[in-house]
Amino acid sequence: MAKKTISISVEEKLKALFDLQCVDSEIDQLRIVRGELPVEIQDLEDEIIRLESRLDNFEEEKKSLKDKLKTKKESIKNSTELIERYKTQLNNIKNNREFTSLTKEVEFQELEIELSEKNINEFKAKIVMKDEIISSTAETLAENKEDFESKKSELSEIISETEKEEKELMKRSEAARKKIDDRIL
Questions:
Q1: 3-state secondary structure 115-131
Q2: What is each CA distance from 71 to 7, 121, 175, in whole angstroms?
Q3: Does this model's pTM top 0.85?
Q4: Is 138 helix (H, G, I), strand (E, B) or coil?
Q5: How far apart are CA 177 and CA 29, in angstroms?
Q6: Mean pLDDT, to the nearest integer, of 166-174?
Q7: How far are the Cα atoms of 22, 62, 97 from residue 87, in angstroms, in the given order?
Q8: What rounded mean pLDDT belongs to the chain?
């Protein structure tokens, strides 16, 4: 949209330019009062999202470990049942080959039980470690949320205090811009 060509003296143009500079400087000063709060708030919001995602991942890993733990306990139960069955069969053997085969099966199942118990202990240790990580992450998340809320309310307070003045200055800035040629702006 083309501006109306109104003949304004050089002195008036310079005066309007000076007024515009003063008004824009005041607007900048109001925005400086906000400081780094908007950036800090955005950073905290991003960090909160990251921590919540991390917490969800840890919970999933913990659930997976508990499922594996349950599976290993079932494996121990099955192996124990097989050992009992094999020992019962040992009483009814008819030759050495059957005896050797059954004793090897018993030994194999005992090794399976030992391996499962070792895995169970590893899973329990990992679960304890995940619990500690989840606890510290949840604590950090709570602190960040608290900090986020306080900074957000502080920024809202600052904005509400300066909003009216900033709107007035913006109107003055627009009025001063209308008096100045585009090429000078």
A1: HHHHHHHHHHHHHHHHH
A2: 89, 13, 75
A3: no
A4: helix
A5: 19
A6: 80
A7: 97, 37, 15
A8: 86
CA distances from 76 to 15, 67, 69, 114 (A): 90, 14, 11, 9
Look up tokens 């005992």; give the residue. 110
Say which residue, 122 or 17, is predicted with more confidence: 122
Handedness of CA 13, 16, 20, 21 (dihedral sign): positive
**Two structure tokens written together for 144:** 């960040």
The residue assigned the tokens 């400081």 is: 35
Q: Is the pLDDT of residue 16 over 50?
A: yes
Please state, as a whole number, how many other Cβ atoms lie within 10 Å of the Cβ of residue 152: 16
Residue reference for tokens 């599976």: 71
On whether the CB atoms of residues 148 and 41 are closer than 8 A, the answer is yes
- Which stretches within 5-95 are classed as H helix? 10-34, 37-90
